Amino acid sequence: MKQRTPLLRWFGIAFILLWSLVPLYWALNISLQTDAQAGSKPSNYLPPTPSLDNYSSLLTGGTDLAQSVQQSSVNIFIECAAATVVTLVLATLAAYAFARMQFKGRRVLFYAVLATMAFPAYTTLIPLYQILTNFGLVNTYTGIVLVYVSGFLPLATWILHNYMSSLPIALEEAGNIDGASRMQVLWHVVLPLARPGIISTAIITFLFAWGQFLFPLVLSSDLSTQPLTVVIASLQGRHLVPYTLLNAAGVLALAVPAGIALILNRYIVSGMLAGSVK
Amino acid sequence: MISKRNRLRNVALVAGAAALSVAATGCSGGGSSASSQTKDVTITVALFGAPPPQKSLDEFKKSTGITVKWSTIDWDSLQTKIAAASTSNTYFADATDVDWSRVGQEGKLGWFLPMEKYIDQKAYAADMPQLSSFTSNGHIVGVPFDASYLVTTVNKQMFAKAGITTMPKTIDEYTRDLQKVKASGVSPTPLNIPFNAAEGLSTYWYQTTQAFGGSILDEAGKPQFTSPDSPGYKAAQWMVDALKNGLVPAGNINVSDSQGQQTLMAKGVTASTFADYSGNVGSLYDVPASSSVTGKLQYIPTPGLSGTTANVSNPDGIGILKTAKYPEAAAKFIEWFTSAENQADFAGASGPDKVMPGYFLPSRLSGLTKLTSAKGLAGGQELTSMLKTSKPVFPAGAPVWYPQFSNAVYTNLHAAAAGSMSVDAAIKTIADTATKLAGQ
């Protein structure tokens, strides 16, 4: 088969990069402009006089806006971190059980867990809302974290199951021969080996939780639990849209997941590919 | 064989799961514990704008004993929350937004308590011309708090430069004047129509249809725009022709209503918006931070077929959710929130300390009069007379299926403007959608 020419390959790479990065650049560009500059015709492809005023409005001072952004930033970190930790603990145990333990209905249960990923998440919104209301968990960290965990657990279990299945079983058997219990084998043998898979699952779960909007919108009712994604949407007025401010808020919300993706991208890729090659 | 211990464990697991399911889903929602208490209670008010000044809310608390917890949520998200809470019969706020376009839907589904139980309907109707827009099945679903109606704005300086000093009174005069502005080179594309496929395009068409002397639907929901001679058809043709003839910027195919106002009108790119928001002159075009045409724009009585025409209203209201914890207290808040004095204050009649950020115009005639006399509201006299004669888009109230209908309107008008279908085909599709929805 004839190899593609480097030129064509570079063209493809450049196209994908532009496709992905231009919107992000445009958000950054607008966020550094004043309203007048952002609305000028023709558009400014570079900020004429770059200004951090929009970021300053969002982050500093004691204004209601700054307080909202600060509190919702704290909320989103707490909710994402807690959801990630709980998901990891449960998914690790479930994945290990599905990968290594023999029990009746193992395959059916495993595929049932995977099948839940096929359901549109939104179909569960109203029942979850009712359940959380009945348990008094609406507008609480616990309620939001539980919903996140229920949503992300199947994917995390699947990724870790694939990873653990690809580990050599001989090491675990050696542990068993040495008298280690199953939990000791899991803790001292499997988890250290599965660390890359666990890290990638943690990153993927955290990023998924960070991008949530509809569920926290419905399940939170004030700033005590609203994450940054919900607060950013509320900046939009009924008749007036503060474009520069919205873009700055968008860039802020993007900074954390973008940083994680850039620094830890090899873990994300390995997590996604876990188990694909034996 | 399963051991006894295992069997017991399995039973316990199933029983636990069942108990959890029953506890979780067996109970109905938590919206049935309404209290008539109005003293020493805290109500939640969820609206899309910033709250009134804390000082005003404190005064309200002092006089009524009601503490207001304000939740700001953007309009689209708010509709999602209202639907989610009402569908699952759960509490999320006592008072919240009732948009004119959702009145039919929300009224039929019974998501809001009838307001006539709490207000003097006759007195309110006399001072609030838009109250009729909030009636569904004979009940008042909400009370308008912010008057919004579609008005025509004109950059008088650009018109004057093109030699136009007398403002147009008919659609024909208006079209000729726009062509004159274009021909003079003052603005190569003088008219702003937001052709982006969004609600703003639908409401623009409703106002233009009104200007051509007609309405969109009759009381039974039957489309009134199918004939090429009908006002709705002519309005759609006029809008699309304006784009094709270069009166409207070609890029407007993807411009939303607020984008057009903020980036075209406020920057002096276009000279007129036929269906603009009431209040935009004072809150956007005359604000130096957001406009390069301060003092140059004015409202004009909207040109019609043979003279000026009525303005179509699209107000925002506030109502009491059926799942409210304190309906009586919420009613007291609504009465206070929509009083003439507060409306005028929120719009700036008593100085910046009492301004409610983002508040546009009083829905009460008395509030608008007070505001006009207090601070010389830009175009106050014009706005007051327009509010008096403003008309609801649907005289019989917005139909239950309005969201689907509006979607068909803006999708097909956008397609006609983009050239992917003819105006005739677009109108036919919109009419077919309305007929199908009305027949369900």
What report would you give on this structure?
The complex is a heterodimer of chains A (278) and B (440). Chain A is an all-alpha fold. Chain A is built from 14 helices and no strands. In chain A, helix 1 (6-31) crosses helix 13, helix 3 (53-59) crosses helix 4 and helix 10 packs across helix 14. The longest helix of chain A has 37 residues, at 64-100. The mean pLDDT of chain A is 90. Chain B has two domains: 41-148 and 316-392, D-Maltodextrin-Binding Protein, domain 2, CATH 3.40.190.10; 151-310 and 401-439, D-Maltodextrin-Binding Protein, domain 2, CATH 3.40.190. Chain B is α/β, with parallel strands linked by helices and 440 residues long. In chain B, strands 2-1-3-12-6 form a five-stranded mixed beta sheet. A four-stranded mixed beta sheet of chain B has the order 8-9-7-10, sandwiched between helices. In chain B, strands 4-5 form a two-stranded antiparallel sheet. The model of chain B is unreliable at 1-31 (pLDDT under 50). The termini of chain B are far apart. The longest helix of chain B is centred in the first third of the chain and has 23 residues, at 4-26. Chain B is globular and about 65 Å long. Chain A binds chain B through residues 35-36, 39-41, 64, 125-127, 129-131, 133-135, 138, 214, 217-218, 221-222, 230, 233-241, 243, and chain B through 23-25, 27, 29-30, 44, 46, 48-50, 69, 71-77, 80-81, 84-85, 87-93, 148, 258-259, 261-263, 266-267, 269, 277, 279-280, 283-284, 289-290, 292, 316, 358, 360.
